[in-house]
Each structure stands twice: as C-alpha cells, then as structure tokens.
Amino acid sequence: MTDTAAARARLLEIIREKAIVHGRVTLSSGKEADYYVDLRRITLDGEAAPLVGIVMRDLTKDLDYEAVGGLTLGADPVATSMLHAAAAAGERLDAFVVRKAGKAHGLQQRIEGPSITGRRVVIVEDTTTTGASPLAAVEAAREDGATVVAVATIADRATGAGERISEEAGVAYLHAYSLEELGLG
Fold first, then answer.
1. What pTM did the predictor assign?
2. How many domains is the chain built from?
C-alpha cells in the first residue's frame, strides 16, 4: 500500500469513528437529515488534519493550480492542511480565506491571504450538501481575478451539489469520499 493509500484509509477510519453523528439534525441548507458529518472534528484533529492535506492533494494532483481556499469556516482548515502537506513534500501551495462578506474596516477585503489575482485556484470544502458555500467562494475568487479550476470537497452528501457546481460554475467537482464509503449510503 502506498503512503497516499494508507493516508486515505486511515482518514476514512477516523472520519467514521469521530465525525459521523447519528440523530435528527438540521443542515446549514435548512434541510433535515438523520445524520451529520461533522468534519471540523477531523480537519482540526492533530492526527487527521495532516491526512486531510495528503488526501486532498492526491485528489487534486492532476489539476494545475497555485492556491486553495474557500468560504470560511469549513474550507479554512482544509486549505491549511493542503498548504502544510505541500510544504512537507517540498512544494509551494498558498491558501486563502473567503469571507462571507467584505470587511467594513481595514482594507475591506473579502479574500484574505496571498493575492489570488491572476492565479489558478481550487475551491475546497469539508463537506458539501447544496453547493452554496463553494459556489459563493467561486464567485468571490473570480471577482478577485482568479481562475477557478475546480471545487474539491472531503465528503459529498450526494444531494446534487456536484451537478449544481458543474452547471452553475462550469468547473470540475471532485470529492474524496462518497456517502457509501462513509457507511451512510
């Protein structure tokens, strides 16, 4: 088994152990579900976060991009994990944060971090239901002058987000784990 395959297998184990919460919940989309995949329990976990970086970089390895980011808060630890995984591999990858709204003070930026103007970027997310958060990040990145090459998420809830992102944003949609892999489909 390769290091990447081992990282992918271990991350899946940790997600199943720590991130899947069974019971009736209301999702950010307003929809109700019988389970919740709380990936912040993973993306902010000392063992799992480095694995997130490895798995997500492997997922996007065939893409040409220079920076990763997305709508705060779900995307922030994913992007940072990828940045650190790249550095550990001797490569450079920048991360950025997309605010839900521009600041009313300071530089009044909606996107924080190294400039993405004129750069190729991947929008990342922890889990995707409706696609609204990554679509908002795609729009903000494009407004800032970036070329968005794809949206990549750790877990896809299989609720149409991929199709919506592909149709509305015109970019590839990638996910590391399906509901079936998480034991939920």
1. 0.93
2. 1
